[in-house]
Amino acid sequence: MIDLATLSVPGPTETELTKPFWAAAAEGRLLIQRCEDCGRAVFYPREICPHCWSSRLVWADASGRGRLKSFSTIHKPGHPGWQPAAPYTVGLVELEEGPTMLSFILTGPDAPRVGQALVMQPTDIGGRVLPAFKIDNDNQKGDQS
Amino acid sequence: MTRSKAALIGVGSLKPVRRTEGETTLGMLARVSALALADAGLEKDAIDGLLVGPQVGETPQHVPATVSEYLGLQPTMSNVVDLGGASGPGMIWRAAAAIEAGMCETVLCVIGNHRNPEAPRSPNRNPIREFDVPFGASGANISYALLKQAHMARYGSTDEDFALIAHWARANAQRNPDAIFHGQPASVEDVLASPLVASPLRLFEIVMPVAGAEAVILTSAARAKSLCARAVHLLGAGEKITHRAVSQAPDLTSGPLKPSMARAFAQSGLTVRDMSLLSLYDCYTIMVATTLEDSGICPPGGFGAFMRAHDFGPEGDWPLNTHGGQLGYGQPDLAGGMTHVTEAVRQLRGTAQGRQIRDPRFALVTGNGATMSEAVALVLGADA
Q1: Distance (Å, rounded) from C-alpha B55 to C-alpha B209?
Q2: CB contact under 8 A, A76 and B134
Q3: What is the predicted pLDDT for the residue at B119?
């Protein structure tokens, strides 16, 4: 795997609302929203809670732990800037708090498996530190899918 | 007896091509509209309704006015249907609803795109761009790869199971001289030997992008009676939209087509077992697998056994995507979904030359957009 920091790839198109998320990511933290009315966690960040439409959303640090719902190893990237990194893996990460996010999966010698425990691993991709994930070898509860 | 909501009386298709040079989408829409009008045996001024698809890279806004002006139409009902690959089928029930509401009597549904070398795409500034693309997930291949992986993990489905779907699409394309893969059949082994694009998806499980256009004309059932010997009627429709990005999908192994098909069947008073033709949206093999399971024709996780147990050709016991599907015909961008409608009309009225199914009565048509997000199901039936 090449050094992901050297990639010339499209970075986040942050907005006023999402600035805290990306600022926290740059510090190695995973910041998500929580609804003060229905109590549920929200990702990606929104103006109102998609579950109850309350506007009382607050930022909260996520644990950074999750589970791999699915993954794909990409041989032909949709964006040419990713070609030097191919093959690389992306996955759907079901966060411990509930929501699912798509992220970059740092893989080891073994192919990942659906159901594996993951932990967030801040990673420089194209010059920005983003919340990637790696297999959490300390927290595997056996294979499950 | 099932009641007709409207009749599909004319269809037109432009032969798909890999590239265009200097074509405009408006020009292609005009040519395919003329084909559908001739097929319907109508004069242009009979058209008083117009439904169009989004004009990727050409006309960002005021699309109905632009298309009306170009075609010299003055419709009393018009709109853009923006449901990705479900846009074409989504036009059909909207046209019927507009006719039933008395807003117009004869509707042109038209969708297509050029494929000139530069093919500009407008820059996205939406959540999928902000939260998925920076991690290396650009384009639809990855989303459907994630859906296929989830199906394999949950049900133990195999690459061979999925390869059968691509194999049958290519086999049926050999009966359609317009298909982009006419002359290029593919065995299960060929599919499995094609290169990995985004694991577990291989190249032959993915549609080939082409230029093309498709048009359908609908009119009231009463008017259809005086116009054609064997009209095709809309008997039921269902639609559901659940999400945009695959990360936000409520379910990875079942999609919004499930309730859409249930509604379409309930409206028609028919079941999937009554269908003479399955015309199922097939951007990727996984889409057909999930749609078969969501239709109830086989149990969840059971599509592989179903594929091995049946013959999906025009003379088979379950004719499926007899035009080759988009996997065999090519995907003319958003018009790809409409190919499943035009093929169903040709089959039901008995004009599918060289690939006609036996005793055509009813067809299930599905459309699908984004990441198994936007769904439309139609039940069509021919005059007895």
Answers
A1: 16
A2: no
A3: 52
Q: What is the CATH number of the domain that holds B83?
A: 3.40.47.10
Nearest to B356 by CA among B323, B317, B308, B383: B323
* Interval A39-83: pLDDT, tens: 999 999 999 999 999 999 999 999 999 999 999 999 999 999 999
Chain A contact for B146 (CB, 8 A cutoff) = yes
Task: Give the residue carrying structure tokens 């990673």.
Answer: A123
Distance CA B2, CA A8 (A): 58
Q: Distance between CA atoms of B5 and B282, rounded to whole angstroms?
A: 26
Residue B142 has pLDDT above 60, yes or no: yes
- Tens of pLDDT along A75-113? 999 999 999 999 999 999 999 999 999 999 999 888 999
Task: Verify whether the Cβ–Cβ distance B153 to A114 is below 8 Å.
Answer: yes
Coil, helix or strand at residue A26: helix
Residue B66 covered by a domain: yes
Which DSSP symbol is given to A78?
A: S
Q: What's the predicted TM-score (pTM) here? A: 0.94
Cβ-Cβ contacts under 8 Å between A and B: the total is 113
Q: Is B189 a member of any domain?
A: no
| Nearest CB to B136; choose among A14, A70, A74 | A74
For the CA atoms of B296, B345, B167, B289, the dihedral, rounded to the nearest 10 degrees, stands at -20
Terminal alpha carbon distance of chain B = 12
Residue B368 lies in a domain: yes
Q: Which residue of A lies nearest to B150 if distances are taken between CA atoms?
A: A70
Closest residue, chain B, to A76 (C-alpha): B197
Structure tokens at A54: 């309350």
Cα torsion through B303, B308, B314, B319, rounded to 10 = -20
Domain total for chain B?
A: 1
Mean pLDDT score, B171-195: 98
Contact present, B377 and B257 (Cβ < 8 Å):
yes
Residue A14, token pair as written in the block: 């942050």
Q: Are B175 and B317 in contact (CB under 8 A)?
A: no
Q: Which domain holds residue B253?
A: 6-119+207-382
